[in-house]
Amino acid sequence: MNIEVNIALVSLLAFAVLSNIPLGYLRMGTQKYSVRWFVYIHLSVPFIIGLRISNNISWQVIPFSIALAVAGQMVGSRLYRRSKR
């Protein structure tokens, strides 16, 4: 692997987690299973897919990007709960 691929991969995975932290925070402030709740969960997915395809990153990275997106949602929800104490 060359340095450009590594940078693209790290950037993709960083985007997956960092973009979902504020979305997880916002999700906690909405009614569960509402349209906004659904949008906050899935808003980053098209961007992650677009970044993966435009940088020619293998499909094998998909489980890691999903896991990091979920982790970002969890961090955001914990930040929300902590701020509302």
Topology of helices and strands:
Elements: H1 3-28, H2 35-42, H3 45-54, H4 62-83
**Main sheet properties:** none
Strand content: under 5%
**Count of extended strands:** 0
Q: What is Rg? A: 14 Å
Task: Write a structural description.
Helix content is 78%, strand content 0%. With 85 residues, it is mostly helical. It has one domain. α1 runs antiparallel to α2, α1 (3-28) runs antiparallel to α3 (45-54) and α1 runs parallel beside α4. The radius of gyration is 14 Å and the shape is elongated.
Task: Note the main attributes of this structure.
85 residues; mainly alpha; single chain
Question: Short description, anyone?
Answer:
This protein has helices at 3-28, 35-42, 45-54, 62-83. By secondary structure, it is mainly alpha-helical.
